[in-house]
Design goal:
This protein is α/β, with parallel strands linked by helices. The chain has one domain: Sugar-phosphate isomerase, RpiB/LacA/LacB (Ribose 5-phosphate Isomerase B, Chain: A, 3-Layer(aba) Sandwich). α2 crosses α3 and α4 packs parallel to α5. Strands 2-1-3-5-4 form a five-stranded parallel beta sheet, sandwiched between helices. The radius of gyration is 14 Å and the shape is globular.
Length: 148
């Protein structure tokens, strides 16, 4: 059963909250069978720097199968997250981006840019993130080199 950690800086806060509503709506059928969801910083729209969010996020990521990070562009959180060996993070703007990143790069963290991603589009990206499987094969060898 998948588990999820989600975090954002202040610019990604509204999209983060919309994603949480999408993943586990209050009055609808639950869209995803996620065993655990951890809402990392921030817990309000207060200004916070993405490296601080990613540091807390990374310390909890080992217990989760999936992660989502959000900032204005998606690039800042991706750069910060990839400093941690157990994280493979990629900013994605299309479902095809997510599909290829999962199939070939076995990403475990989806990075979104709140300035470029609508709530509806985020839903499509997240669906692809949870449903696309890693191909393995030659790609597994490359991921192992990254982990070394």
């Amino acid at each position: 059963m998948p588990s999820l950690i989600i975090g954002s800086d202040h610019r990604g806060y509204d999209l983060k909250m919309a994603i949480l509503d999408f993943i586990c709506p209050d009055n609808k059928d639950i869209k995803y069978d996620i065993g655990l969801i951890q809402n990392c910083k921030p817990h309000g729209p207060k200004r916070i720097d993405y490296p601080d969010v990613v540091k807390e996020f990374a310390s909890s990521m080992p217990i989760h199968t999936h992660g989502i990070l959000i900032c204005g562009s998606g690039f800042g959180v991706s750069t910060a997250a990839n400093r941690y060996k157990h994280i493979r993070a990629t900013p994605c703007r299309t479902s095809k981006d997510v599909e290829m990143a999962r199939r070939h790069g076995d990403i475990n963290v989806l990075c979104l840019g709140a300035d470029f991603t609508t709530k509806r589009q985020a839903g499509k990206l997240i669906n692809t993130f949870f449903t696309t499987r890693f191909e393995g094969g030659r790609h597994k060898r490359r991921i192992q080199k990254l982990m070394a």
